[in-house]
Amino acid sequence: MTDLWDFALRLYAQPGVEPACLRLQAGGADVCLLLCAAWLDRRGVACDAARVQQLRKQAEPWQRTVTTQLRQLRQEWKSAAQGDAQLTELREQLKRLELQAEQVVLQRLGAIARAWPSIAGETDMVWLRAIAGETADPAALASLHQAAASLARAPHDRLP
Questions:
Q1: 160 in a domain, yes or no?
Q2: CA geometry: angle at 42 spanning 138 and 21, to 5°?
Q3: Does 159 reside within a domain?
Q4: For residue range 67-84, what is the model confidence (pLDDT) as tens digits?
Q5: N or C terminus of the chain: which is more exposed, having fewer CB within 10 Å?
Q6: DSSP secondary-structure letter at 30?
């Protein structure tokens, strides 16, 4: 089965996914949790409140203390870096660190959820809705879901 990090990279590269994720993030959603939710929906894993809480408990402290801090600093430097090549390079380093921080949290989320079995039946956007919340942009969620569904299933994506 594809690990969450590989799935997230493939999904994020799909047309429309980045702007959908950024719209959802602007509404307060955690992109790493959304990518994990899309992975779980695609795998057909049963969603319940305890599992959602387990994922949130893993992701939220890391996102708050590491990823968000790196992102905020990178964004704060954006206008100042326009005319400063050294600051531009430091922003690029921050961007790489931010991506590494996201990889860490996705690996941790994947480690938790990897053993959760698939179920028979439909799990269409159940995880995405649970993670994003009731007020999430439905069009952005649908874009993310459609992109995940469109990824070609490789033999190693199937669960035993």
A1: no
A2: 40
A3: no
A4: 999 999 999 999 999 989
A5: C
A6: -
The answer to whether 118 and 45 are in contact (CB under 8 A) is yes
- Residues of the domain holding 148: 4-153
Q: Is 137 exposed, middle or buried (0-12, 13-18, 19+ CB in 10 A)?
A: middle
d(CA 18, CA 122): 26
Cβ density class 97-130: b for 16+ within 10 Å, e for less: bbeebbeebbebbbebbeebebeeeebebbbbbb
Q: Which of 110, 141, 139 is nearest to 43 (CA)?
A: 110
What's the pTM?
Answer: 0.88
User: Residue 79 has which token pair?
Assistant: 């206008």
The per-residue pLDDT for range 99-145, each reduced to its tens digit, is: 999 999 999 999 999 999 988 665 689 999 999 988 889 999 999 99
